[in-house]
Amino acid sequence: MSATLNLPIIDLSSPDRRSTATSIRQACIEYGFFYLVNHGVNTEFVREVFHHSAKFFSLPLQQKMELARKEYRGYTPLYAEALNPSSKGDPKESYYIGSVADTTLVHLNQWPSEELLPNWRPTMESLFWKLLAAGKELLSLIALSLNLDEDYFEKIGAVNKPAAFLRLLHYPGELGSDEEICGASAHSDYGMVTLLVTDGVPGLQICKEKSRQPQVWEDVSHVEGALIVNIGDLMERWTNCLYQSTLHRVMPTGKERYSLAFFLDPSSDCVVECFKSCCSKSSPPRFPPIRSGDYLNERFKVTYGSEKNLKCSIQSKN
Ligand SMILES: O=C(O)CCC(=O)C(=O)O
Ligand SMILES: [Fe+2]
């Protein structure tokens, strides 16, 4: 049995931005995870999105494979992805939608036809825009929490062409509850922040101290109407490990589960180097500066193996 955490709840629309920023700082230092409420993505709409997601995943495999992932966009079948590269592949299927905000790459997205799944594409595009808006608003508070100007991520070019991805996930329930098989194996996310929408079925767990052995896993419960936010590896590098990109996984419970993960990553040309407010003489930068696109490319390659056209899929062409 794992303990259940009481993660902090952050109110995105609170007028007291200073105090919200202070709570974000505490949450990111202690957990690297928190709940986000009043984020502008309403519960009714989320229900509709899950309905559309379930419709797609219930199509015959052959039909789903017609939209098989290319350029990191489209359908990924069961076991095709290993979030932990030493695992045999995760028992989940997913569907990736690349940034609809990036005019140079938006054409790479694949969509089921309107005849097959009416209103599917506009619903997913609408979710994308809503999560992008919430994510950008959150980033301004994260900047404040690091004693930076609210528009700092804009100023350094991190969000002008964000390499955002929306991933629809489906964990089939019938695969059993073998302790050894995770729905999503232990991993940290790669980029800035992830906004996660869950359907109420449990399974998500975090390990607060990744280097501690044996690892201690704690359950993250679903809070109706809240998004679950977690810090990614590039944010950890930016903050010199002040903010944790926490290890997490999804354990099977025997129940079918759906989730929606929105990865908000920096524009590929943005150079990620330790924020001045996060290093000092006694605490020098732990990581060399790195171009976001190069870093993400490497991480994608390890997770998905060598995928053709990997480079052009996540690097914007200027
Ligand atoms: O499905 C979930 O709850 C988590 C998914 C996740 O961690 C990921 O896709 O990176
Ligand atoms: Fe994740």
From TrEMBL:
<dbReference type="Pfam" id="PF03171">
    <property type="entry name" value="2OG-FeII_Oxy"/>
</dbReference>
<dbReference type="GO" id="GO:0051213">
    <property type="term" value="F:dioxygenase activity"/>
</dbReference>
<dbReference type="InterPro" id="IPR044861">
    <property type="entry name" value="IPNS-like_FE2OG_OXY"/>
</dbReference>
<dbReference type="Pfam" id="PF14226">
    <property type="entry name" value="DIOX_N"/>
</dbReference>
<dbReference type="InterPro" id="IPR027443">
    <property type="entry name" value="IPNS-like_sf"/>
</dbReference>
<dbReference type="InterPro" id="IPR026992">
    <property type="entry name" value="DIOX_N"/>
</dbReference>
<dbReference type="InterPro" id="IPR005123">
    <property type="entry name" value="Oxoglu/Fe-dep_dioxygenase_dom"/>
</dbReference>
<feature type="domain" description="Fe2OG dioxygenase">
    <location>
        <begin position="162"/>
        <end position="266"/>
    </location>
</feature>
<keyword id="KW-0479">Metal-binding</keyword>
<keyword id="KW-0560">Oxidoreductase</keyword>
<comment type="similarity">
    <text>Belongs to the iron/ascorbate-dependent oxidoreductase family.</text>
</comment>
<dbReference type="GO" id="GO:0046872">
    <property type="term" value="F:metal ion binding"/>
</dbReference>
<protein>
    <recommendedName>
        <fullName>Fe2OG dioxygenase domain-containing protein</fullName>
    </recommendedName>
</protein>
<keyword id="KW-0408">Iron</keyword>
